[in-house]
Amino acid sequence: MDCLSPEVLGRMPLAESVLSIWRSLVNEEHLQPIWDQHRGRCYDKVICFPVIVQLISDALLRYGGSGRRSFEKGVEKGTLAASVTAAFTKLGRLPIAVSQAFLEESSAQLRKVFPPGAQWQGPKSLQHLRTVILDGKAIKNVAKRLKPLRGSSGGLLGGRALVAIDWTTEMVIAMHAHADGQANDVAFVKDLLPVVRRQISEPVIFVADRAFGDPVQTAHFTAREGDHFLVRYTKRTQFILDSTRPQQISENDKGETIIESWGWLGAPSNKLRRYVRHIELQRKNDEPIFLVTDLLDAEEYPVEDLLWLYRERWGIEQVFQKVTEVFGLSGLIGSTPQACIFQFAMCLLLYNIIQIVRGYISQAQDLEPDQISMEKLFEDIKDDLIAWNVLLKPHETVAYFQDVLLPAELRQRLTTLLAPCWTKRWFKSKPQVRKPQPPRKKARTHSSVQRLLHPPSQTTAKSEPPKN
Prior knowledge:
The protein is of the alpha+beta class. It has helices at residues 6-9, 13-25, 28-38, 49-61, 67-77, 84-92, 96-111, 189-199, 215-221, 303-311, 314-325, 337-365, 374-391, 394-400, 407-418, 449-453, and strands at 130-138, 156-157, 160-166, 171-178, 204-208, 228-232, 239-241, 248-251, 257-265, 274-282, 289-293, 447-448. The strands form 2 sheets. Strands 1, 3, 4, 5, 6, 7, 8, 9, 10 and 11 form a 10-stranded mixed sheet that branches.
């Protein structure tokens, strides 16, 4: 490092910040236990798990999402002691459990260094609850490289995942994924919520769309004492009005009518039916919104606060959009569901890292985090990282980040690096006014890669004809 002056390094604070955060995650003490516990029947021979993590991160951050270029560079530098084909094969066989655990444990480490000044504050009535937003994501646009995929019509789905996001920090907590892109992610709730509760010990309010509004899922949401839910009501589930409790009718500041009712969610024969508060918002130029929640007290939990919180659910859709368009999920490196899900986990982790960087910058500039464009910031981060890798040799970078910083030390380092780091170019552009497009009906054209690679067995035996 003697060849570069502090002035030169000081011109790349974004690169140093991201590499400092990345160093706390990509080390043998962190990655090896994840692999050992969740690898199943897979094993390390030549290409170990930390190498795959580094190669995919290089592909997303430095080589425009090209896995082949990253693997070829790895062979050239000696970090990949195998062929490019072997690297693709290893990526395509990574167990989904490893991807899930990698995201969960890495995100838990990252949340320890998130700046408190960049955390969102909800309404006073809900501040004692930690808001967690749930939604599913199908991984689309799989390349048809594998022989069984060639000739298939339409798009291909490389798996599906149910993702949980901490609203306070806008960071991803964890995901539960499945190889079948056409699987119903509602079935993943019972597997994902214990992971969320391991990460968040305080009481949680789960916010989700109408797919999660049945008695089975609401029972999962309230399985831990103190947890609550706010979900959109689905008419597939019966709501029985409590005639002994009068409805409350009010108007919001837009002049829209709000009707609050109380009753039972589920039929009388349903063992999981529960008493809930039903909220109806009659919008002027759109369909009404129906919500159900177990926060029954209308005075303690005002209806305006609950409607505001549900509108915040749209933030998870924005996260998925950024992960796809900004962090490289639109171009998938592998063609198997395992490879696609691992890349999805990596993109979510990159989103978390950039969210931390944006948080420290917004805190230093006394701005709201969403005033800073994540896309513009990420482009400058990639430029800094490319410059860092051009100016420094790999062994110099390793020597510079030799010590793994503790969370308190990392917070101090990030504050020092990012406090003076600002340009007005990072301000988010004003939303463009676009003409509404007429709705177009489309037939479903996506197929699941998992179902094409491993078609379900079909029973060929015919039933016997009836006897006279």
